[in-house]
Design goal:
The protein has 13 helices and two strands. By secondary structure, the protein is mainly alpha-helical. It has a two-stranded antiparallel ribbon. Bound molecules: Phenylacetyl coenzyme A (FAQ). Phenylacetyl coenzyme A binds next to α2, α6 and α9.
């Protein structure tokens, strides 16, 4: 082991932050670029399912909230791409890989949003799962990623609250509204559990990412935390979680729950989810339609630089 490697390990073991100009192992850099890019792509693709409802929100208030939330997600994507750039990645290249299906994004965004209760359930469960996974990332070993996560988590907490409040309102409404909420919960519960990734024994990256303190908990630990957190929230809301095996286990001090359909998980991760093709095609079209904006911005930047040189 070289002196550089020893210094790096000491820094990480002492819970200090690795910063862009520090020496780091190639594998550490590659893993971070992979995870941060996937995270950034998830935020950007994640705008689509909810944006589907902006033009059909039931009131001006709900529309303003939803617009703000979807804009926040664009902002999260941008912080994360910027964090990846501090590792030497190129944002244009990352986007290219996304639209060519060469880089992943979270499986959850490949499911359709069929009614307005889905907006509430995405806030409650999807943002809830995202918070569970991302709060520990505020202590991840790479400084720019950790700092980006602090603001992202604050905004995700607002997103989670708005979703829960929306669902509470619908649950106080008509029978038809309560049925819509239950239907949305039935469809989103299992995909939300899949957000945490494969089980620990099938997770190829966890051991190394934990050793580097990129990840602070395993996939199964975080999934369990999310289940334990969601059960009392579901009770307060008055909905049933669609898992007959879900029950409190006093010995473990946690809820037991049923087995995830791992075939479905890998199918969706592999690009064959119900909306996978549509999501990527939409992103690709938006990217192509934005070509003239990027050209204009680059021309303007070049002109500003040459004017500064002349002055
Ligand atoms: N979907 O070895 P592991 C959000 C891949 S943001 C797709 O366990 P790792 C905000 C994984 O990449 C949601 N692929 O991997 C929002 C790996 O592939 P590779 C996104 C998945 O990295 C809310 C392979 O499987 N959040 O929701 C998934 O150690 C509402 C083996 O897996 C983040 O990205 C999956 N679910 O752990 C926006 C958080 N799970 O590259 C709009 C940061 C695993 O080896 C609306 N990321 N894979 O071929 C992480 O914490 C980790 O990357 C995990 C996966 C936990 C996702």
């Amino acid at each position: 082991m070289s002196e550089l490697e020893r210094d790096f390990d000491r820094l990480v073991d002492a819970e200090q932050r690795v910063e862009p100009r520090d020496w780091m192992p190639d594998g550490y850099r590659k893993t971070l670029i992979r995870q941060i890019a996937q995270h950034a792509h998830s935020e950007i693709i994640g705008m689509q399912p909810e944006a589907n409802w902006i033009s059909r929100a039931p009131s001006l208030r709900r529309k303003a909230i939803l617009l703000a939330k979807v804009q926040d997600e664009a902002g999260h994507g941008l912080y994360l791409y910027a964090a990846a750039e501090t590792l030497g990645a190129d944002r244009a290249d990352l986007t290219q890989k996304l639209v060519e299906g060469r880089q992943k994004y979270s499986s959850i965004f490949n499911y359709p949003t069929l009614n307005f209760a889905d907006v509430g359930v995405i806030g409650w469960l999807v943002d809830g799962a995202a918070i569970c996974n991302q709060v520990p990332l505020c202590r991840t070993s790479y400084g720019p990623y950790a700092r980006a996560m602090i603001r992202v988590c604050k905004e995700e907490s607002f997103h989670q609250r708005q979703g829960y409040e929306l669902l509470m309102t619908m649950m106080r409404g008509t029978d038809a509204q309560r049925r819509m909420v239950q239907d949305a919960v039935n469809r989103w519960w299992w995909p939300s559990l899949m957000m945490f990734g494969p089980s620990d024994e099938a997770s190829s990256n966890t051991a190394q990412s934990m050793a580097w303190r990129i990840k602070r908990h395993t996939n199964d630990e975080l999934r369990q935390k999310f289940v334990d957190m969601s059960v009392p929230q579901a009770e307060a809301l008055g909905v049933t979680l669609p898992d007959p095996l879900l029950k409190w286990n006093a010995d473990r001090g946690h809820h037991d729950f049923g087995e995830i359909d791992w075939d479905e998980f890998w199918r969706v991760v592999g690009g064959n989810g119900p909306c996978s093709k549509q999501r990527v095609a939409h992103r690709r079209a938006a990217h192509e339609n934005g070509e003239w904006v990027r050209e204009a911005a680059a021309a303007y930047a070049a002109r500003t630089v040459s004017e500064e040189v002349v002055a």
